[in-house]
Write a structure and sequence with these properties.
With 383 residues, the protein is of the alpha+beta class. The protein folds into 4 domains: 116 residues, Immunoglobulins (Immunoglobulin-like), CATH 2.60.40.10; 80 residues, Sandwich (Immunoglobulin-like); 87 residues, Immunoglobulin-like (Sandwich); 58 residues, no CATH class. The chain contains 5 helices and 25 strands. The strands form 4 sheets. Strands 1, 2, 4, 5, 6, 9, 10, 12 and 15 form a 9-stranded mixed β-sheet that branches. Strands 11, 13, 14, 16, 17, 19, 22 and 23 form an 8-stranded mixed β-sheet that branches. A 5-stranded mixed β-sheet has the order 18-25-24-20-21, with no helix packed on it. Helix 1 packs antiparallel against helix 2 and helix 3 packs antiparallel against helix 5. The protein binds 2-acetamido-2-deoxy-beta-D-glucopyranose (7 copies). One 2-acetamido-2-deoxy-beta-D-glucopyranose binds next to strand 22 and strand 23.
Length: 383
C-alpha cells in the first residue's frame, strides 16, 4: 500500500505496474493460497459485437470496495473513475456501489480479446472475464475486372473477401446457356472458354451477418459465321432485297460483292443497310444486268465468313394472271354445261308418262346415264 501511495503521484507507466501488482498478482496469489471459496471469479458469456458498434462491459461491485479496474488484456482502461486509457472510444458509463460499467464505441477487430474486471474488496478479490468477439460483415476486397477474351482462352476469375467469421464464396453465372451455380472457390477456372460461357459472373461472399456481392461481365470474342443466304427470285423492274445474317463477337461488319466487284452503299439504285447482326442490300429497280451472283462477307477482328446469294429472274406476273383467267373460263363453261344436262335429266325424270308410254327399259337406262353424267361433271368441277 505504501508503494501504491507513491505510485499515485508518479508517472502512468509506474502506476500501471503498480496496479498490476495490486490486482493481478495479489488476486492470483490469493486464489491459489486461500482457495476458490475465498475468491469470486466469474466467466461471463462471450460478447459478440459487430464492427462499428458499441459494447458495454459491466461488473458488479458490492461489499466495501477498495480498488477496482477494467483491463484490456493486461493494460488498465479504467481504475475506478479514473480513465487510464488514451483511447477516446472508451468511456465510463456507471460507477457506483453495485455496478461498474464502461463502454467501447466503434469497436474494431483489434478490440477483440479478453477484458477483465478486477475488484478488490475488503474481504476477497473478484474478477470477471469478458471475451469480446468482433464480427465483421464480408467485403470483397479483390475482384476480377470486366473481361474480353477470345474463345479458347483459359480464364480465371478471382474473388477475394474478408470478414469475420470467414465468409463463404459462391459464384453464379448468368450466361446465354442459362443461369447456373458455379464454384465455391475464390478462384473460378474456366478452361478453354466457349462462346456460351460469356455472360455475367456474380461472386457472393457471405457469413452469418451479411453478404457482399460483385458482378463482372465476361465477353467472349469469336469469328463470324454467316447464316441464311437464300437465293432470291425477282421480276424485272421490281425491288430486290438480299439479306445476310452473321453471328460474331464483336459484331461483324459487312461487305457485298457482285462476282468479284465490291458494291458500296449509294451505288446507283442500291442501298446497303447494316443493323447489328444483319446486312440488307436493296436494289430498288432490278434490271437485266442485276441478275447474278452476290457475295456477302462478314468480318470481325478474329476472321471472316461469306455466303453467296443468286439473284435470278422470275416470270412476269402478267403471264400467270392469264393462266388464271383461262382456267376460270373453262370452269365457267363446264359449270353451265352441267346445269344444262341436269335440267334435261330432271325433265326426263319428272315425266313419268313418257316413261310409261315408251319402252320402260330404254327410258330407265337413259335416266341412269344422265345421273352418271351429272356425277362425273361434278367430280370434274371439284378439281
Ligand atoms: C468464447 O469464445 C472463445 C474463443 O472464441 C471460445 O473458445 C469459448 O468456447 C467461448 N465461450 C463461450 C461460453 O461461448
Ligand atoms: C485492446 O488492446 C488491443 C491490443 O493492445 C488494442 O489493439 C485495442 O485497441 C485495445 N482496445 C481497447 C478498447 O482498449
Ligand atoms: C489452358 O489450360 C490447359 C490445361 O488446363 C493447357 O494445356 C493449355 O496449354 C492452356 N492454354 C493456354 C492458352 O494457356
Ligand atoms: C436504311 O436505313 C436508313 C437509315 O437508317 C433508312 O432511312 C432506310 O429506310 C433504310 N432502307 C431500307 C431499305 O431499309
Ligand atoms: C426501272 O428502270 C426501268 C429501266 O431502267 C425504267 O423504265 C423504269 O421506269 C424504272 N422503274 C422505276 C419504278 O423507277
Ligand atoms: C457465286 O460466287 C461464289 C464466289 O465468287 C462461288 O463460290 C459460288 O459458287 C457462286 N455461286 C454460283 C451459283 O455461281
Ligand atoms: C469466301 O469463303 C471462302 C472459304 O469459305 C474463301 O475461300 C473465299 O475467298 C471467300 N470469299 C470472299 C469474297 O471473301
Amino acid at each position: 500500500m505504501r508503494v501504491c501511495g507513491y505510485c499515485a503521484t508518479s508517472w502512468n507507466r509506474l502506476l500501471v505496474i503498480c496496479l498490476r501488482l495490486l490486482f493481478i498478482v495479489p488476486a492470483g496469489l490469493h486464489v491459489r493460497s486461500q482457495g476458490d471459496s475465498q475468491s469470486d471469479n466469474k466467466v461471463m458469456d462471450n460478447v459478440t459485437v459487430r464492427q462499428g458498434e458499441t459494447v458495454f462491459l459491466s461488473c458488479s461491485q458490492g461489499d466495501v470496495v477498495t480498488h477496482t479496474a477494467w483491463l484490456n488484456r493486461s493494460s488498465i482502461l479504467y481504475a475506478g473513475v479514473d480513465k487510464w486509457s488514451v483511447d477516446p472510444r472508451v468511456s465510463l458509463v456507471t460507477f457506483n456501489r453495485d455496478e461498474f460499467t464502461i463502454k467501447i464505441e466503434n469497436v474494431d477487430v483489434s478490440d477483440e480479446g479478453l477484458y477483465v474486471c478486477a475488484v478488490q474488496t475488503s474481504s476477497r478479490p473478484r474478477t470477471t472475464f469478458v471475451h469480446i468477439i468482433v464480427q465483421v460483415p464480408p467485403k470483397i476486397i479483390d475482384f476480377s475486372k470486366d473481361m474480353v477474351v477470345n474463345e479458347g482462352t483459359n480464364v480465371t476469375l478471382m474473388c477475394l473477401a474478408n470478414g469475420k467469421p470467414e465468409p463463404a464464396i459462391n459464384w453464379r453465372v448468368h450466361s446465354l446457356s442459362g443461369g447456373s451455380v458455379g464454384s465455391d472457390d475464390e478462384y473460378l477456372d474456366i478452361p478453354s472458354i466457349s462462346r456460351h460461357k460469356a455472360g455475367e459472373y456474380e461472386c457472393m461472399a457471405a457469413n452469418d451477418i451479411a453478404a457482399d456481392t460483385r458482378t463482372l461481365r465476361l465477353v467472349v470474342n469469336y469469328p463470324p459465321s454467316v447464316l441464311g443466304g437464300r437465293d432470291i427470285g425477282v421480276t424485272l423492274g421490281q425491288r430486290g432485297v438480299l439479306q445476310c445474317e452473321a453471328d460474331a463477337v464483336p459484331a461483324a461488319t459487312f461487305e457485298w460483292y457482285r462476282d468479284d466487284r465490291r458494291i458500296f452503299n449509294g451505288f446507283d439504285g442500291i442501298e446497303i443497310n447494316d443493323s447489328g447482326t444483319f446486312s440488307k442490300l436493296t436494289l430498288f429497280n432490278v434490271s437485266e444486268t442485276d441478275y447474278g451472283n452476290y457475295t456477302c462477307v462478314a468480318i470481325n477482328k478474329l476472321g471472316s465468313a461469306n455466303t453467296s446469294i443468286v439473284l435470278y429472274e422470275v416470270i412476269e406476273p402478267t403471264s400467270s394472271t392469264l393462266l388464271q383467267v383461262e382456267t376460270t373460263s373453262f370452269l365457267e363453261m363446264t359449270s353451265s354445261a352441267l346445269e344444262q344436262t341436269a335440267t334435261e335429266c330432271s325433265q326426263l325424270w319428272e315425266e313419268p308418262g313418257a316413261v310409261q308410254d315408251g319402252n320402260s327399259g330404254t327410258s330407265g337406262t337413259y335416266t341412269s346415264l344422265c345421273l352418271l353424267l351429272i356425277l362425273t361433271l361434278q367430280l370434274l368441277l371439284k378439281f
